[in-house]
Amino acid sequence: MPRETTYYSYVVGELPEGCQLCVRGEKLVLFVTGVCPRNCFYCPLSPWRRGDVVYANERPVRSVDDIIAEALIQEAGGAGVTGGDPLARLNRTVEYIRALKERFGEEFHLHLYTTGALATKKALEKLYDAGLDEIRFHPDIFTPNSKLFEREIENIKNAFDFSWDVGGEVPAVPGQGERIKWFAEFLDRLGAKFLNVNELEFSETNMRNLLDRGYKPINDESSAIKGSLELGLEILRWGEENTSLSYHLCTAKLKDAVQLRNRLRRMAKNVAKPYMEITEDGTLRFGIAEYGNLDELYALLVKDAEVPAEWLYINREKGRIEMPVEVAIELAEAIEGDVRFFIVEEYPTWDRLEVERIPLP
Predict the structure, then answer these.
(1) Which of 28, 95, 193, 331 has the fewest CB atoms in 10 Å of its CB?
(2) Is the overall model pTM greater than 0.90, yes or no?
(3) Is the pLDDT assigned to residue 254 strictly greater than 90?
(4) Is the pLDDT of residue 79 over 90?
(5) Number of H helices, E strands in the chain
(6) Are both 88 and 228 inside the same structural domain?
(7) Alpha carbon distance 361, 356 (integer Å)
(8) Residue 226 in contact with residue 201, Cβ under 8 Å?
(9) pLDDT tens digits, 34-63
């Protein structure tokens, strides 16, 4: 029987090494390109990543230095190389893999996702020589009657010429259990190590496609698709009895409640300024003051309100002065006029996504 992990997921056999690091928040997400030879109906890729763009987590990448900087802030133990299809920009992908191995050493674990459409022997050799540790294939098994699918399946066989970990990764699309089982048997015959099955979720970009096909969310508060988790568990039970593969059912809850949270916690302690609190969820909590003239406000706070200057930080980019929560609460009660005070919570990510704002008093 599949065993439930402490990460709200389910496993048969061994958890892939890439997943072990990921659930602990140690995997840098290296998005190499949004270009892909496929156009899968369930693709969740956001509109601003559906092009030839590069991101390390939420940070836009202009050079390898950006990737290294993000990995250091996260204290990453590895990276998941994804897209799009990273093989659509092979030379770039190889450059990044090699650079990460050179900077962080052989123990820095790198896994990569690809459709397989571009996985020629020559391409795979370049990835292997650069230091790739694990490759995960995601052919579109749900549209099997196409030349592109046939090429993907043939190319997957090339991966077994190299001594890295080979596996598959597909979403649990309700009604498509037989196709997933077919893929599992195909991988098993070749000698693959694992098949990851992901709980299918709605996103901004795939919602219309999924709704048009009759798929529904499990409730009004979740993005998970009804029946996907149940299908995933069915695949794991079947796979344990019929194949020698390891399986991991990666749930929507794992991504939101575990993986992201752990990554934020790792980053927060490296980016938090002295006046910021780190919450249990890994967000940064602090007070802010907003006013038309920041220099005038700063002088008011330091000279008239006698706030120690080391407690204040002028953030001109966001048009505010940041400070400890306790200071903001006291000042909001003492200062009248057009100055507005808030308590905010932000992700410790490059884009500093604001997740909560509480007006004071």
Answers:
(1) 95
(2) yes
(3) yes
(4) yes
(5) 12, 17
(6) yes
(7) 16
(8) no
(9) 999 999 999 999 999 999 999 999 999 999
My answer on whether 245 and 122 are in the same domain is yes
CA 292 to the chain's CA centroid: 37
Helical H runs in 243-311? 252-253, 260-271, 294-299
CA dihedral for 104, 30, 92, 143, sign (positive or negative): positive
Alpha carbon 51 to its chain centroid, in Å, reads 18
Last residue of one domain, picked from the residues 266, 284, 317: 266
Q: pLDDT band at 221, cuts 50/70/90?
A: confident
State the sign of the Cα–Cα–Cα–Cα dihedral 126, 149, 83, 9: negative
| Residue keyed to tokens 């998941």 | 80
Residue 161 has pLDDT above 90, yes or no: yes
Handedness of CA 334, 338, 343, 349 (dihedral sign): negative
**CA angle, residues 299, 305, 309, in degrees to nearest 5:** 55
Residues 269, 273, 277: CA angle, nearest 5 degrees: 65
Quote the number of domains for the chain: 2
Locate 56 and state its tokens. 């390390």
Task: Please check the confidence at residue 325 and state whether its pLDDT lies above 90.
Answer: yes
Q: What are the Cα distances from residue 157, in Å, to 16, 152, 191, 195?
A: 20, 9, 10, 15
Mean pLDDT computed over 13-17: 96
